[in-house]
Predict the 3D structure of the following.
Amino acid sequence: MPQGSDLVLTVAQMQAAEQAVFHAGVSVDELMERAGRGAAEYVWRMAAGRAVTVLCGPGNNGGDGYVIAEALLARGLAVRVIAPMEPKTNAARNARARYQGDISTEGNGISAAVLVDCLFGSGLTRGLSDELCDLLIGLASRHHQCIAVDLPSGVQSDSGAVLSPLPRYDLTLALGAWKWAHYLMPAAQHMGALRLVGIGVDAAAQRDFTTARVLTKPTLSVPPRSAHKYTRGLVAVVAGAMPGAALLAAQAAQHSGAGYVKLLTDEGEVDAPADLVVDRRPLGEALADPRIAVILIGPGLGRDATAASRLEEVLSLGRDVPTVLDADALMLIGPDRWPAPSDRTIVVTPHGGELANMAQVFGSSPNKRPFADKVHQAIELDGQTNATVVAKGPDTVVFQRDLGMVLAPAASSWLSTAGTGDVLAGLIASRLATGRDPVAAAGEALWLHGEAARLAGPVFTASGLAERIAEAYAACL
């Protein structure tokens, strides 16, 4: 595997990683050969003997395209290169000179089985011209499958912004390291399957506190033979005005590793399953249990004075119990209600609207980094609160300054249904209760959440999702 193969680099970091290879004695031409030939292996498999069109731009991404075309031509495939512009770098000119096949400057009427987009790569900062955009979209419409090399042409690498209309790709081949746009919306929805082509760069050498890593399948474990319910962790889920949401979170926590889950409510009757303990004492008395390993508050809490009072009781607890704040709790929180500095672990789980609200309430500085606003807001919110931020959505970012950043690959779009966020909150609380640090707990929870959705298939409910968590957990043992 490539060094640092789970890391996500900015354009500047990738350029620095490539410069390190050049300083070690590898030429630009050699690095281009590595990239192009590595990408050609994937194109060869997808083509399966069918004709291929390679769209080459003027830069080194276009040079990669010429290398791909020559490698496929040498294997006997029917290959056509379309190059609307002359190469502008020495390495691209050299790669074009080595290509022995046909080159066209226009794509009118050209069709084949597979289109390979090597028009522009990760350095793009503005949209394509109308002529180039029409060329790309037109070619894509006349090919059965489309492959993007490094990134689709028309995508901003660091932010995930889409700068020009895009076709839908079946496969995107990241060269050397993952880029932010591979995992950030809106670009990520156009990528298709993602594969990483190693070219010999050391992504790990570029790591800093904002360098993300891609979430991968966790390795979980069975409890030790000496375990009992308290050593596995007691999760206290605080219910509120809409107890159904808290019940969903509790159900998820029960299936993801915690040994004991309690629902804390002193309001009315709750239709809880027999295996869920309901503690009806006043909240302050219930929270006094020293065996509580994690508190979760927010799902179904409400936003009235009673809800605010319950949140205050949790946040003013006299000991540092790890706490997950979700849903309504995030809309009630603010600098005036934030716990005093301590060693307490706090995880916040905002969706897009909640994150924007928290950024406004806590005060976010202008985004002067190359990152997407979501990433910037997560970093800023962590800086202001010292909380671990799980900025969730179709692209999910986890950040804590001392533990790093994680990007979660897109999970099933069927998760866009009511209650699935409550399930995720319960998963995070449960993994925290087992003793994991907050970034690891969030990462494991996100993976289990996505896998449970895959197992549940289409059109599931939140309770149906929670029922598949144990099966997802079993896949990690």
Observations:
- The chain has two domains: 7-207, 234-474.
- The mean pLDDT is 94.
- The radius of gyration is 25 Å.
- The chain is about 35% helix and 15% strand.
